[in-house]
């Protein structure tokens, strides 16, 4: 196991995706907190934990990834790297970057690329 020493929050309403990403990224040395609802992640962030990266799905049932980013910005809960994951090729990344998003990660995931990308 590597010691990456990066703390990630992953938000996705698909439990299987959360479990897969958690297993793969923990094996690479990342510290992972997963949430299947954006509201639960917001509650977690209210305690001001050390978070280096947030990786959020765009299409979620209750709150989409853009709304999640807007909410944590409005409440000043986090100001670090925020990556939005989507398979929507028509997604307008300009709005995302205008509200403080870092970058888009396309789905389906290329796991090797994702791991190397997050290590940077």
Task: Describe the protein's architecture and organization.
The protein is of the alpha/beta class. The chain has a single domain (7-119), classed as Response regulator (Rossmann fold). It is 39% helix and 21% strand. It has five helices and five strands. A five-stranded parallel β-sheet has the order 2-1-3-4-5, sandwiched between helices. Helix 2 (38-46) runs parallel beside helix 3. The longest helix is centred in the N-terminal third of the chain and has 13 residues, at 15-27. It starts with 6 loop residues before the first strand and ends with a helix. The model has no long low-confidence stretch (mean pLDDT 94).
- The residue-averaged pLDDT reads 94
- The H-level CATH homologous superfamily, spelled out, is Response regulator
User: Architecture, according to CATH?
Assistant: 3-Layer(aba) Sandwich
Main sheet record = 5 strands, parallel
Order of helices and strands: EHEHEHEHEH
Ranges with pLDDT <50 over ≥5 residues?
Answer: none
Tally of individual domains: 1
Share of helical residues: 25-40%
How are the strands ordered across the major sheet? 2-1-3-4-5
Total DSSP E strands = 5
What is the fold named in CATH at topology level?
A: Rossmann fold
Shape call: globular
Radius of gyration, whole Å: 13 Å
């Amino acid at each position: 196991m590597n010691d990456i020493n990066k703390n990630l929050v992953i938000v996705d309403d698909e439990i299987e995706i959360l479990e897969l990403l958690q297993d793969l990224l923990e094996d690479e040395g990342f510290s992972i907190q997963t949430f299947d609802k954006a509201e639960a992640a917001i509650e977690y962030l209210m305690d001001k934990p050390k978070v280096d990266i947030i990786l959020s799905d765009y299409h979620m049932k209750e709150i989409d990834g853009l709304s999640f980013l807007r909410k944590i910005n409005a409440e000043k809960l986090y100001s670090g790297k925020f990556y939005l994951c989507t398979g929507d090729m028509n997604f307008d990344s300009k709005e995302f970057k205008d509200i403080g998003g870092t970058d888009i990660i396309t789905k389906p995931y290329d796991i090797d690329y994702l791991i190397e990308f997050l290590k940077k």
